Model the fold of this input.
Amino acid sequence: MPEIPKLLSVKNISAKYNLPRRTVYRLLQDGVLPKIVFNQRTIRIPADEAERVINKLTQHSLVK
Done:
């Protein structure tokens, strides 16, 4: 049986990686961070993908 990925909210991502929420929303809008949209107000980001993308961006100094 496949493992269910852990999903995080924008608020969780912002706190975990010390990023402004606006930056997280921009990354989502630009398609840099993958998202799962449940409805207009509920967006979740797979935790493993978020970690991979943000680590890659911070290594290249694209996220300030």
About this structure: The radius of gyration is 12 Å. The chain has a mean pLDDT of 90. Residues 11 and 54 are 15 Å apart (CA to CA). Helices lie at 10-17, 21-29, 47-59.
